[in-house]
């Protein structure tokens, strides 16, 4: 199992932590936004952050031309005050894109795109988000109290499905393909998305003795 943690500071004394969990192997990175990897691609426009963006695992290792392809990613609105909304998804490799489920991104809310609309053989990712107040750095002569820190405030997580329809060419693992995400207030961002790696298990030993 792998775990990718993203800490977003500077939100009026709040820290927003996004943890995306999924299956796979490989080294975690937050700077590799276009190379094919287990973690997917990263992107940001204004306070909107996109993490672990990738195509779902195709059932036969390739998305053929004319087929549909579902996406898997997490979108986080890191703004403490400004709401937003995912209004459109486009790509030069598909005739159309369909967004179903939740589109809204209120302040400090996450949107999980689980890839449920396409052929997926890997488990869906899970997202855990907490908001924790940062400690003050000012000095004080008051004695420390024995009370514990307040519990992190819960953050709402919406769920949506994004499917690119009518691929104009076959999509192969090892390559990346452009997808544009459009938000009502933040604007648009284009990200090169890889195809997710299948959760293949290592073959079991045959039990035959050699030597």
What labels would you give this structure?
single chain; 16 strands; mainly beta; elongated
Structure description:
- This protein is mainly beta and 211 residues long.
- The protein has strands at residues 2-8, 14-22, 41-45, 48-55, 62-63, 69-77, 84-90, 94-101, 104-105, 109-113, 126-133, 153-154, 157-167, 171-172, 176-183, 187-194.
- The chain has a domain at 37-121 and 153-194: PCu(A)C copper chaperone (Immunoglobulin-like, Sandwich), CATH 2.60.40.1890.
- It contains no helices and 16 strands.
Task: Tell me the layout of helices and strands.
Elements: E1 2-8, E2 14-22, E3 41-45, E4 48-55, E5 62-63, E6 69-77, E7 84-90, E8 94-101, E9 104-105, E10 109-113, E11 126-133, E12 153-154, E13 157-167, E14 171-172, E15 176-183, E16 187-194
Parallel strand pairs: 10-13
Antiparallel strand pairs: 1-2, 2-11, 3-4, 4-6, 5-14, 6-10, 6-13, 7-9, 7-15, 8-13, 11-12, 15-16
Quickly describe the structure.
0% of the residues lie in helices and 48% in strands. It is mainly beta.
């Amino acid at each position: 199992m792998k775990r990718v943690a993203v800490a977003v500071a500077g939100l009026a004394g709040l820290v927003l932590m996004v943890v995306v969990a999924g299956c796979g192997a490989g080294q975690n990175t937050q700077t590799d936004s276009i190379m094919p990897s287990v973690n997917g691609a990263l992107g940001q426009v204004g306070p909107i952050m996109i993490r672990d963006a990738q195509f779902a695992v195709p059932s036969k290792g390739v998305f053929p031309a004319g087929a549909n392809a579902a996406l898997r990613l997490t979108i986080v609105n890191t703004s403490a005050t400004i709401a937003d909304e995912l209004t459109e998804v486009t790509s030069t490799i598909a005739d159309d894109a369909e967004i179903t489920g939740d589109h809204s991104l209120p302040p400090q809310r996450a949107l999980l795109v689980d890839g449920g609309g396409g052929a997926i053989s890997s488990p869906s990712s899970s997202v855990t988000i907490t908001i924790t107040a940062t400690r003050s750095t000012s000095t004080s002569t008051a004695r420390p109290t024995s009370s514990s820190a307040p519990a992190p405030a819960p953050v709402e997580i919406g769920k949506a499905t994004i499917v690119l329809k009518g691929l104009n060419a076959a999509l192969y693992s090892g390559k990346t393909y452009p997808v544009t995400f459009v938000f009502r207030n933040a604007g648009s961002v284009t990200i090169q998305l890889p195809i997710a790696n299948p959760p293949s298990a290592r073959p079991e030993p045959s039990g035959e003795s050699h030597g």
